[in-house]
Amino acid sequence: MNLDKIKSIALSTAIAIILALFVNVGVATFYKEPKYDECYYPRALKATGEYQEPTPEEAQKEKECWDRNDALRSFYNRNVFIVLVITGTASLLMGLFMGVSSVASGFLFGGILNLFIGIVRYWSDMDEYIRFILLGVVLALLIWIGYKKLR
Predict the structure, then answer these.
(1) How confident is the model at residue 128 (pLDDT cuts 50, 70, 90)?
(2) What pLDDT digit, counting tens, does each position of 27-63 carry?
(3) DSSP-derived secondary structure letter, 45
């Protein structure tokens, strides 16, 4: 492998990593994660040194607290997912039309990273049908890019 090829690979890799970091740090900077309530309530110790079980009222309050936190987290992750999918797709498309191959490859890989991070963040809250459709769309997009770029 010659030196120019190594430089090209290094530049592509650096662009991909920095692009993904730039987008994710930008999201964290301008769209703050919500503050979550503390859902554990102190328990009195029994004479044996074990924690007492919560009363039904305490257990209900804890459940409601966790449900609120889960709803906030899910809403936030969905919005971050949307931003990362949009920026990831835009990066992929930009990579198709750039003339310098190492920069184009960096944008393609950076777009893939942003798509991956967005999907992983929202995966557990995503409906199973949405997962299937999303993966099908991403697969079709990547195959299309392969034909368009590598033809």
Answers:
(1) very high
(2) 999 999 999 888 877 666 666 767 777 888 888 998 9
(3) B
Task: Pick the closest to residue 137 from 88, 73, 97, 96 (CA basis).
Answer: 88
Tokens of 80: 């971050």
- Scanning 31-55, the segments in alpha helix (DSSP H) are none
In angstroms, rounded to a whole number, what is the distance separating the alpha carbons of residues 8 and 13? 9
Residue 78 to residue 34: CA distance in whole angstroms:
13
Chain centre to alpha carbon of residue 3: 34
Angle between helices 56-97 and 3-30 (to 10 degrees): 140
Q: Among candidates 85, 64, 73, which has minimal Cα distance to 133?
A: 85
C-alpha distances in Å from residue 128, one per residue of 3, 11, 136: 46, 37, 12
Tokens standing for 148? Answer: 């368009």
CA distances from residue 64 to 35, 70, 81, 120, 148 in whole angstroms, order as listed: 16, 10, 25, 26, 51
At residue 24, what is the residue type? N
Reduced to 3 states (helix: H, G, I; strand: E, B; else coil), residue 126 is: coil
